[in-house]
């Protein structure tokens, strides 16, 4: 991304940054009470969420959505406004009415947002807040104020990525929040956006991820900044090479994850057009290459820096924070990467096996009282041939009955999260894959559909739990 000349010329692993705008410390005082943003629907198993600059107009979100159908966005960036105080861009309150209205409008249109903390400019909160408790308070204020289910941490730059104390403090604060939200039935997905080389993550970035695991933080996604390597190269191939290298690196940290789960743990973020190292140019052809690769591999997220650059400059080859410097039509990169986004809504799924799903004790997976109301319990019950036990296992990864999807309550990923029926919305909470034996696995959580307490009593709720291969996690699907 565009940043100061001194940083732009450095041939270092890719980094994101704020555009060249003044970062002004806020007073840090209490702000007037403002209503929190409305809850969002969450995210599909694959989606595009470009970075949108919070120092620019919130209207860009609506404009991009209207032009391309893009409906997921990453808010860049939340940094310290002075004195351990989370703000947009260092000078705008998280409760800003314009951004809250834009977020609400996007969610009403079926979209959602991620807040990204960090970036290359300003002071990163993990360094500004000196204790785990203080940092946790700031994160919680943003998460609750924006009603977030997903947060991104763009940790980059000398003195930041290698700040072991801040990395540990950040991971501890996030692990505690994640556990507290899970206990309250809420989901908090955490992802890291990190500088990379085409050969994979450098050691400082790997150390950060290892520390996260050691602190019992569940990392949902690792997003590569596929930009600013130094010399000219094929930027599409560099992005896919980096993704392939990351797949192996993640497997050495999270050793129990399957091949598909590791791909689903990836994100990829190029800088569109002319990069800060101007010999590098990420073209629309490169975007097509990366999008096709991501779709084929099951990479969860594509993004780019930045939404405000998604248009042509007056002349090609220009490095600017308001245009790409490469040949393109308006919003072309947004349109291309949005091709990875999974569909939501209640349209019928692709064809798949339809019939009973039988489990523990030969009983059937059943919708309580044959009700298709959102939130209806999914349970074990005597097989009776009713429509409440007629499931379609779609080729899109959904499992459907009564026109709705098998869903995890509040998009939870913790052990004990209950299964329910809900409007199909394309989120990861409604994705299922056949695992080892006859297990049914939710790839986002990595956990198995499970009969609570191994009980065969009618009405026993289904839930997810760490896969153990027991009889209460075996389900025979329709052919």
The counted number of beta strands is 23
Distance between the termini: 50 Å
- Strand residue percentage: 15-25%
CATH homologous superfamily (4th level) name of the largest domain: Glycosidases
Largest sheet: 11 strands, antiparallel
Domain GH18: 45-344
Organism: Streptomyces liangshanensis
Signal peptide: 1-32
Pfam family, one: Ricin_B_lectin
Tell me what the structure shows.
The protein has about 475 residues and is α/β, with parallel strands linked by helices. It has two domains: about 325 residues, Glycosidases (TIM Barrel); about 120 residues, Trefoil (Trefoil (Acidic Fibroblast Growth Factor, subunit A)), CATH 2.80.10.50. Helices cover about 25% and strands about 20% of the residues. It is built from eleven helices and 23 strands. The strands form three sheets. Strands 13, 14, 15, 16, 17, 18, 19, 20, 21, 22 and 23 form an eleven-stranded antiparallel β-sheet that branches. Strands 1, 2, 3, 4, 5, 6, 7, 8, 9 and 12 form a ten-stranded mixed β-sheet that branches. α5 packs across α6. It starts with a helix and ends in a 14-residue tail after the last strand.
What's this entry about, in short?
This protein has 479 residues and is an alpha/beta fold. It is 25% helix and 21% strand.
Based on the model shown, name its key terms.
479 residues; alpha/beta; Trefoil (Acidic Fibroblast Growth Factor, subunit A); eleven-stranded antiparallel β-sheet; 23 strands; globular
